[in-house]
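Hi Y.,

Following your request, here is the sequence exactly as I used it, all 176 residues.
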Amino acid sequence: MNNETLLKNLRNVPDFPIKGIQFKDVSTLFKSAECMKIMVDELYEMYKDKGITKVVGIESRGFVVGAALAYRLGAGLVMCRKPGKLPAETKQKTYMKEYGTDTIEIHTDAITEDDVVLLHDDLLATGGSMQAAYELVKDFNPKKTFINFIIELTIEGLNGRAVFPEGTDITTLIRI
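Below is the corresponding structure, written out as tokens. Let me know if you'd prefer a different format.
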């Protein structure tokens, strides 16, 4: 899609969180009412006929658009968080990131076999955090699972899509 307004409002932060990383800061998209409307409207159009019953927002930037999209789709919101942030019983996965390891978890009662799930996060780079979230969600055996990102980095060596099984439904709003 590569909407020009979204691209124009996206901030690049060099050497964050470590030297050599060119961080794509979506907070500049979130603070713009026009960008929020564009993102939610475009995602709604992509998913309005898919029967989505739960949107899983990945900590923490995935919560922002994930919540707005869940509301618009008439779906529930499930938070996929770092350990110790969810108060009830959880399942968790540890994964590799571009610059270290991390762990995420979901409440054990968050998703049922009757759900159609859309996993949402801000950025696809190596795919580690979303792969872990995808595996967590698949453990619940939902009817169908979709994956979405605001941004996909297509820089040589990243290839985040490759970590998902062939045929996984993955969409993005911006490819850089």
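The first strand starts at residue 11 and ends at 14.

Thanks again,
Q.
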